[in-house]
Design brief:
By secondary structure, this protein is mainly beta. It has no helices and 28 strands. Strands 1, 4, 5, 8, 9 and 10 form a six-stranded mixed β-sheet that branches. Strands 12-19-18-14-15 form a five-stranded mixed β-sheet, with no helix packed on it. It has a five-stranded mixed β-sheet with strand order 21-28-27-23-25, with no helix packed on it.
């Protein structure tokens, strides 16, 4: 079925041609798209020149979506291929569109004539957009937190503001990252970037660096194995010492001692012992200090 609606550009006194012209419009937009993290989809069409009477440098293409005429750009990779990046509404599942192509063609008497051709009407099915979210709305510099979503890859990198963060691939639905040294006290945009993805997950309120640090930042041990955890403060422990409450969501897998940094000291070590096989996290808390989370696996 040919398009019934013809959009004429005001500056052109041209011939309308639906068939038999020197150019054919070939739709190169796929009928379905994979999910786009940004909600942007590329519509494309090839202007196939049938004879030398058409002046190739005069080609001008538009795509009409929902009655709105949008200019297309010439691809740098393929001659006479026109493209348009369509930002699809989040609630739209099907889009109908057609192309308008303007060009100049020589007639038999060698005069120049402006011609416009209209394509068939096409449709494309749009998938639901990918939704990303932050595990927590705020975190301190140097702490670990997560972005939740789908279709993550090991090559994905998380940016906090303009700064890349140390990114840890957990699964296709979770990426963890260490909050880099950005300006504290502000909300910073968190973005997942890869070759095909550049999508904002949200805004993270970044607090000052935690005065307490723990090494290692991730634990893997065997059942019955003992591993030392080192706790360090940026300033000496207060009067009476600093009690550190270490808990876990896998109590059958980890045997934990009591941890106290002595008064005036900055460091202390404690020994954990592996119990039953399992994986989870250690939650490290102390008065007026943001919580630290340490992933742990007992094999």
């Amino acid at each position: 079925m040919k398009a019934k609606r013809i959009l004429l550009l005001p500056s052109l006194a041209l011939i309308i041609c639906l068939a038999g012209c020197g150019v054919k419009i070939v739709n190169t937009t796929p009928p379905t798209f994979p999910a786009s993290p940004t909600g942007t989809y590329k519509l494309s069409a090839l202007a196939e020149l049938k004879n030398s009477a058409v002046q190739a440098d005069s080609l001008e293409a538009f795509v009409v979506i929902d009655g709105q005429q949008n200019p297309m750009t010439l691809s740098a990779d393929s001659p006479n291929l026109f493209e348009y990046n369509y930002q699809a509404p989040s609630d739209k599942e099907l889009t109908r569109f057609y192309y308008v192509l303007n060009f100049v063609q020589k007639t038999r008497d060698q005069s120049l004539t402006e011609v416009q051709i209209i394509s068939d009407i096409y449709r494309v099915i749009l998938p639901n957009p990918i939704t990303l979210s932050l595990q927590a709305p705020r975190a301190a510099i140097g702490t670990r937190t997560s972005v939740l979503g789908e279709k993550f890859a090991e090559t994905d990198i998380i940016f906090v503001g303009s700064m890349p963060a140390e990114t840890i691939f957990i699964s296709a639905s979770e990426l963890q990252f260490i909050v880099p040294e950005v300006t504290p006290g502000f909300g910073h945009k968190v973005e997942v970037r890869s070759i095909t993805r550049a999508q904002t997950a949200g805004y993270l309120r970044v607090d000052r660096a935690n005065p307490l640090s723990v090494l290692p930042s991730k634990l893997t041990l065997q059942s019955g194995q003992r591993v030392a955890l080192a706790f360090a403060l940026t300033n000496p422990a207060p009067y009476g010492g600093l009690y550190i409450n270490v808990t876990t969501d896998i109590p059958d897998c980890i045997i934990m001692p009591e941890v106290i940094i002595p008064e005036g000291a900055r460091t202390v070590s404690a020994t954990l012992e592996g119990g039953k096989v399992g994986s989870g996290q250690l939650f490290i808390n102390a008065t007026d200090i943001p919580e630290l989370v340490i992933p742990v696996t007992v094999e």
